Amino acid sequence: MLNNWLKIAFINYKKNWLSTIINLFGLTIGLTGFMLILMHWNDEESYEKWNPKKDQIYFFQSYFKKDNFYGSSITVPLAENAAKRISEVQDYVLMTNTGIAYKMTTKSKSVYIEKGFTTTDSFFNFFPFKLISGDYKNVLEGGNDVAISVKTARQLFGKTNVAGESLKFNDKNYIIKAVYELPAENSQIKPEFVIKPVKQLENDKEQWGNFNYACFFMLKKGADPKDFQKKFKDIIMMGAKINAKRAGISPQQFNGLYGPNGSLLTPIDRLKLHAESSWFSNPDFKSLLILFSLSVLIVILSAINFINLKTAQASQRAKEIGVRKAIGSTKSNLVVQFLMETFVICFASYLLSLALTELLLPSFNKFYEKEIVMDDWHIYLYSFLMVIVVTLVSGLIPALYLSNFKAIETLKGNFARSKHGVWLRNGILTLQLIISSCFIIGGLIINQQVKHMMKKDLGFNGKQILQINFNDVNNGKPWLKYERLKIEMAKIQGVQSVNYGEAVPGTGNFNSSNMDYKHQSFNAQHGSMDYDYLQFIGVKLLKGRWLNPKLSSDTINNTLVNEAFVKKFGWTNNEAVGREIKPGFDNKPYKIVGIVKDFNIRSLKSEVEPIIFFHYRETEWKRYNMSNIQIKIKPDDIAETVKRIKKYWQTNVEPGYPFDSYFIDKQFAKTFETYQKQLTLFTILNAMVLMVALLGLFALSSLMIEQKLKDVAIRKTLGASDRTLVMGLTKQFLWITLIAVLISMPISYYLMNEWLKDFAYRIDMPVFPFILSLILLLVLTFAVVSIKAYQATKVNLVKYLKYE
Fold it and tell me: Where is the chain membrane-spanning (predicted)?
């Protein structure tokens, strides 16, 4: 029987070769997109799965009620007291810098090593990397102990058994206590070396307000993180009582003004995608979910094509079904037969999609900067399950529809007069066009939003400004280094001017503190700088004056603020100038002498944050944290000037270190990359959707018009023109398209409005994409259907009327 069914199936595949190719093509494209996005999702979810203690380790996030904001950091006293007083806690680890770099020196050579971590003693209890040499016991106990990776050991010594060897960096001698091998699996915690920030920890031991550390807590087995979160509120109030006493207010007032007000623990293996805030990257589960949903929609569209084409072919198989029923075939047998025919096509598409996925994977990896390989059995299982689902969905509806034909009616030829198939096809075609319309509208709106961001006035000018980052920022006195280089590098041919600023557009690495005025307080970014840095990057002054090197007070307590700062306090510009505010990073009041126009430093997805700008000499710790120099280059010979700057830097400033530099405008442009990638992917998916939908429409219209060829012959005999016949055959499809687009409009409006809510600087919902979607789909529908309709007008009249 199976052999017989397969013969019938292949006869029908051959007879309806166009429909077969379209179904194969659509399902292959859909399944390929599904597998690629599924692999991307699976790769993102795989981070930290290697860790044997992952079920007990949680990343800490602090919650600030006033701003409804989650922070990714904690203070030393909060962490220490949580570990002592919350019974669910087994251990904790703090990290303060997860990207340091040093030039390390051995007896024979010096090597610049990047990706170092500064952390507390328990690090290797949380991250038990495979030990190659040495011992993890008391590995970070002293301030001169270091653990290094296998890669670092080979770079420095050419071998891995180097525990006990000495290293020199950061103006100190270190002893290597352990050599470890980093996991091959995905992880955000892959340090090339690990040291303990002894001095910083000592300075921050009693500082309840210094949120300078990332924190992981290890809970006891079976402990509920919600219990930790409830008990942590008591730890918060401990800090509030201490700080409130200093400020002369109640603990409740202090907690309301400054926070934090709560906490959140995220399992370490969910940190990459699902954390509210992360020290290591920005979680973006929403975008991934959107992409996955779109890939599933394409598979659904392919299934819709299958259903439509199968039901449209019903008249061709009506007599076959009638005969089979007449000789004793049951309804269940027919359903199984038709499902088997569908499965053969789906399985063939599955095999083709595996080959196509392997072919596209290198480009996909390059696009996402990944190294995904098709070695995970889950991918094959989930994609095959999708094949089964598609088989059932796209096969069961036409199978039930065809198996319900009555033998007597089909053998008499009455099937052609049944309208049930027409309603089913039209309904499914409408759904397909609704999805296509949503894709078109969404793609156009995303395109307009990205263009809007790229064209927006950023409030600064970063052209021709080259930033060079200091590699040895922790050595010596970096402000003196800057002041020396400012004079010396200005002499290099092609250099227009030299400057320094902390709040550099596009870097995203900014410190913030509370800003107090009477009983008001909020958080603001720091912008330590040289006197004329804001003029250097083209920021405009709105009120007051710039900082002046001739006024000694401008290096003591005078400051500039931006518009967002003024608005946060609810002042006017006139009210703000002359007022004194108390910043959390200093013990003295700062006087506002000028207000500058807002400019973007993070990205256009975020609103401009309040920023306070002050000279780097006003606060001691800011002087010691200066980390860059910026050079404006004359426009006539930029490339050669950069070469001269690089040569000078590597010869006279930081020999042996990499030349870490970038142009500010290009660095800021990287903040658009995520949205440009989203636009690219959406455009590709949009093209795939339209291609699948239009091919399905062409095949469906071909089958339906073929069923009307006798009507066409009669009308043509009675004198109907080609134009009248074409319009008559396409009118039904145009009405379906119109209805589908009208239904898609409110759906698209809601979905895209939700997407646009993520942007601080968003476009108003445009009307044009909705109108263009309607026009485009009507034109494409008419173009696709009219091709077959026009061919139908050239029908051989004798062939269809000789028996009438």
Answer: 21-41, 288-309, 334-357, 377-402, 423-446, 679-700, 733-752, 767-790
Q: Model confidence over 307-358: pLDDT tens digits? A: 766 666 655 565 666 666 666 666 677 677 777 778 888 888 899 999 999 9
Q: Is 641 exposed, middle or buried (CB count within 10 Å of its CB: 0-12, 13-18, 19+)?
A: buried
Q: Domain limits at 144?
A: 66-260
Decide: helix, strand or coil at residue 124.
helix
Q: Is the domain of 663 the same as that of 682?
A: no
Q: Facing residues of 147 across strands?
A: 178, 194
d(CA 261, CA 253): 12
Handedness of CA 39, 42, 47, 53 (dihedral sign): negative
The total number of structural domains in the chain stands at 3
Instruction: Give, as one character, the DSSP assignment of residue 111.
Output: E
Answer yes or no: is pLDDT of 244 > 90: no
Last residue of a domain, one of 209, 226, 260: 260
Three-class DSSP category at 774: helix
Q: Tell the residue number behind the tokens 């069961």, with chain if given.
A: 396
- HSE value, Cβ hemisphere, 13 Å, CA-based, for 770: 13
How many Cβ atoms from other residues are within 10 Å of residue 18's Cβ? 13
Count of H-run helices and E-run strands, the chain: 27, 22
- The answer to whether residues 431 and 473 belong to one domain is no
Q: DSSP string covering 186-219, please?
A: --S---SEEE--HHHHHHTTT-TT---BEEEEEE
Does 747 fall in a domain?
yes
Q: Which of 621, 644, 671 is the last residue of a domain?
A: 671
**Run of H or E residues at 679:** helix 673-706
What is the crossing angle of helices 225-247 and 76-85, to 10°?
130
Same structural domain, 726 and 688: yes
150 plus 199 within the same structural domain: yes
- Say how far apart CA 753 and CA 764 lie, in whole Å: 9
How far apart are the C-alpha atoms of 109 and 706, rounded to whole Å?
A: 81
CB of 383 within 8 A of CB of 31?
Answer: yes
In angstroms, what CA-CA distances link 710 with 310, 419, 705, 707, 714? 22, 18, 10, 8, 6
**313 phi and psi, to 5 degrees?**
-85, 5
CA–CA separation, 571 vs 574, rounded Å? 8
Question: By C-alpha distance, which of 445, 454, 626 is closest to 533?
Answer: 626
Cβ neighbours of residue 723 closer than 8 Å, sequence gap 6 or more: none
> Does the N-terminal peptide bond of residue 635 adopt cis geometry, omega within 30 degrees of 0?
no
pLDDT in tens, 266-288: 999 999 999 999 988 888 788 78
Tokens of 794: 């050239």
Per-residue pLDDT tens digits for 478-488: 899 999 999 99
pTM above 0.70, yes or no: yes
Q: Is the dihedral of CA 262, 756, 689, 336 positive or negative?
A: positive
Nearest Cα neighbor of 82 from 262, 246, 222, 204 is: 262
Q: Which two tokens stand for residue 177?
A: 């206590």
Evaluate whether residue 702 is within a structural domain. yes
Over residues 391-431, the pLDDT tens digits come to: 887 777 766 666 665 655 555 555 544 455 567 667 777 88
Higher pLDDT, 682 or 533: 533
- The verdict on 545 and 628 lying in the same domain is yes
Residue 256 lies inside a defined structural domain of this protein:
yes
Q: How far apart (Å, rounded) are the C-alpha atoms in residues 579 and 199?
A: 36
Is there a single domain that holds both residue 622 and residue 678? no
442 and 489 both lie in a single domain = no
pLDDT at 553: 87
426 with 498: CB under 8 angstroms?
A: no
160 and 119 in one domain?
A: yes
23's tokens: 């179904």
**Is residue 725 a part of any domain in this protein?**
yes
* Distance between CA atoms of residues 283 and 266, nearest Å: 12
